[in-house]
Specification:
The complex is a heterodimer.
Chain A: E1 2-3, H1 5-11, H2 16-23, H3 27-34, H4 42-52, H5 56-59, E2 60-61
Antiparallel strand pairs in A: 1-2
Helix pairs in contact in A: 2-3
Chain B: H1 10-34, H2 39-63, H3 70-75, H4 81-110, H5 115-140
The chains are: A mainly alpha, B mainly alpha.
Chain lengths: 64, 141
């Protein structure tokens, strides 16, 4: 699953550690999500979407 | 909406610590009385080193959760969902490896290989498997 977390985070002027702290996960988890190595659980994906004020499907895209 | 471990309550942590502190001298005294050689000394040193490392990891995870390693967060019950995935993959690998390795060890003992040496080798092999699997999963995720 591709995602736009890095772009949204950078647009918001947040560090990876800052976003991790806001979402209650580690900086390492944010790095892995941004690099596409780790697909977040549904609760975390929803938390990310709510944090950026966007629908989940606008942030996470299923690979064709 | 955090997916981080909320951490066990303080009384549970204290109970676990007290249990570990009571178990260690009990095991040492048991081994000193019934086990050959200096097994008791190995148990004492290994137990104390393990408790020390767990304490250091828990302290670091509580003090600066964003800078500690995956293993430290897991030990301190501060892991998030990715940390739990890494742990589960490592334990799954250990489980898969344990059955054939234990079978080989049992056959080796049955055909006359010294049991103590075989069990020692088995233990170290299983430890190597779980550590390697953990590091691989941590790098992959």
């Amino acid at each position: 699953v591709r995602n736009d977390v890095r772009q949204l985070r950078e647009t918001a002027g947040l560090s990876q550690a800052g976003l991790g702290a806001a979402l209650g996960v580690s900086r390492q988890t944010i790095i892995s999500i941004e690099n596409g190595r780790y697909d977040p659980s549904l609760p975390l994906a929803i938390a990310i979407a709510r944090y950026f004020g966007r629908p989940v499907e606008e942030i996470f895209h299923v690979d064709p | 909406m955090s997916t981080r471990d909320s951490g066990s309550p303080l009384h549970r942590r204290v109970a676990t610590l007290l249990f570990a502190l009571a178990l260690l001298p009990t095991a040492v005294l048991f081994l000193r009385r019934y086990a050959p050689g200096d097994m008791w000394l190995g148990c004492l040193v290994g137990g104390l080193v393990t408790l020390l490392l767990l304490g250091v990891a828990a302290h670091r995870a509580r003090r600066s959760p964003q800078t500690v390693t995956t293993a430290e967060r897991i030990v301190a019950s501060h892991g998030d969902e990715r940390d739990r995935t890494v742990r589960n993959r490592a334990l799954a690998s250990l489980g898969v490896a344990a059955i054939p390795l234990t079978s080989v060890a049992a056959v080796a003992v049955a055909v006359g290989t010294p049991a103590a040496a075989t069990l020692t080798l088995l233990l170290w092999t299983l430890l190597a498997v779980v550590v390697t699997a953990f590091l691989r999963a941590d790098r992959a995720l």
